[in-house]
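In practice, a research group might receive sequence data for several interacting partners and want a quick structural hypothesis before committing to experiments. The following worked case mirrors that situation: the sequences arrive first, and a predicted assembly follows.
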Amino acid sequence: MAKARIVIDRERCKECHLCILACKKTLIVATVEFNTRGYHPVASKDGDECTGCTLCAVTCPEAAIEVYRG
Amino acid sequence: MKKVFSRPKSLKNVAFHYCAGCGHSITHRLICDAVDQLGIRGITIGVPPAGCAVLAYNYFDMDMLEAPHGRGCAVATGIKRTLPDRVVFSYQGDGDLAAIGTAETFHAANRGENITVIFINNAVYGMTGGQMAPTTLLGMTSTTSPPGRSAILDGHPIRMSEILAQLDGATYIERCAVNTPQNILRAGRAIRKAFQYQMDGVGFTMIEVLSQCPTNWKMTAAESCRWVDEVMAQTFPVGVIKDIGKGERHAD
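A structural hypothesis for the assembly, expressed as tokens:
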């Protein structure tokens, strides 16, 4: 059971990739899919490693990341 | 699972028009976070500027009153004097506050108007295409200083925070950055503290935010964040510049 997880709003993402740099465990990756605004939104890797530190969400300029923990 | 981080309630559920990686959108969220945490959404009035953030009223779910270019502090003064029980903040860029609005800002600070100014410093005129601003660094290229800003031709970058800190009316001035998670958290605390000072009636407060502008700096978002630390912070050192409120050294 994962300790925490993040939910990325793909439609808001503008692929600035600041969340990728913010994640200490490199759990966020770039993708090649498009969203409706023509950007390649980032995606969160599945797995149990996310600790819910919220640094990716704190960094995201678009406020597109929600963090769940517990 | 419990939600531990989401959009602030004061931030409208619409997409920002800002470029990818822009510091404006981060600062918008920090202001909304501070307003939510202090529970002052109903009594807060914001004053957006001319510049990239001219449409800021589309994002803040609170009262906003647009100011003409550079007149943010004058408009905020009027609102605050008419409605002294409200929390009034002016949101201005460097072209707005440090060029056309220098006089208004200077005298509002000197009068010790009980308002908060959020000063976004990205060292260029962003909306009009990256022209040289008063805060452009020496040697920095912009569309109106292609060989780089020269001190002889164009003068030196203006450090507004240090200038205003010398005025007796200014009570709390801090320079922050929004280029790393740590700096963003620190900037959020500084903005909250400035609002708290205003609610305590202490006097003029200003938070300068070093904001990355990847588009006009011709960089990727990641490069521009590094550039803030490596180059911009040399001219504009981050930290508390003045705090007479409670004698604290830093927002945290």
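Before designing any experiment, note the following. Chain B has nine helices and ten strands. Chain B has one domain: 23-243.
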